[in-house]
Amino acid sequence: MRYKFHHIAIACIDINKTISKYEALGYEAGDIQWDNIQKASICFLMAEGMPTIELISSEDEQSPIRMILKKNGVIPYHTCYLTDDLQESIESLSKKGFTVLTNPVEAIALNDKKIVFMYSSDSGLIELVEE
Amino acid sequence: MEKKLKSIMADVFVCNEIDINENTIKEDLENWDSLQHLIFVSKLEQEFDVKFKPEEINSMKSYISILGIIKSKL
User: Fold this and answer.
1) What's the helix, strand, coil split of chain A in %, to 5?
2) Cβ pair A118, A72 in contact under 8 A
3) Which residues of A touch B59 (CB under 8 A)?
4) Shortest Cα distance from A126 to chain B (angstroms)?
5) Domain at B2-71: CATH architecture
6) Which portions of chain A are predicted below pLDDT 70?
7) Residues of A with CB below 8 A from B42's CB?
8) Of B34, B41, B55, the CB nearest to A99
9) Who has the most CB within 10 Å: A118, A121, B22, B26?
10) In this predicted structure, what is the pLDDT of residue B12?
11) Tens of pLDDT along B34-53?
């Protein structure tokens, strides 16, 4: 399997405040969207020559995002990779020690592309997106 | 197997094995939050050489439910 890096997600408390900080670094922010599956607000920021950033903020006290924020403050939350075959990637990475955390779902912030979250204690949380 | 499970839970959730019994639920263990849950599930898969479905991971909310899920796979 071959993967392409897509974005770094950063858990944040006040998404608008964090957007302004990344704008100061030269990023341009897209629209803030509500993802009903992750129960979170999401905003993608891009800048030429820099990795895409996804800001993610949740009001749900039980969400992993809130737990990360409580423990660490604003911090990178997951890395995301593109794959051309989501199911094959899930099977391949599962055999290599990743735990499949979600069934494939469509992500509104990624034009309804199918995504899945996987975790390994050696890599942290990753997201896969089917191209 | 039960001792091994209690040992893993005590290690991940930073508590004493003696405090874990068949009545233990998620809310009983202060450190059992959604982040630690990821670490816990990952460790269970490694230690018991099993794979869980997302639905199973979400239903692991008590010692007894986890024990049942693992037993069903061995």
Assistant:
1) 25, 45, 30
2) no
3) none
4) 12
5) Orthogonal Bundle (1.10)
6) 62
7) 99, 119-121
8) B41
9) A118
10) 94
11) 888 999 999 999 999 999 99
CATH class of A4-130: alpha beta
Q: What is the pLDDT of residue A108?
A: 82
Q: Is the ipTM of this complex over 0.85?
A: no
Angle formed by the axes of helices B2-12 and B34-48, nearest 10°: 140
Domain boundaries, chain A: 4-130
State the CB neighbour count (10 A cutoff) for residue A69.
18
**pLDDT on residue B11:** 94
Chain B residues with CB inside 8 Å of A121's CB?
Answer: 38-39, 42-43
Q: Which residues of A26-40 are buried (b: 16+ CB within 10 A; e: fewer)?
A: ebebeeeeebeebeb
In the predicted model, residues of chain B with pLDDT beneath 50 are none
**A115, A54 contact by CB (below 8 A):** no
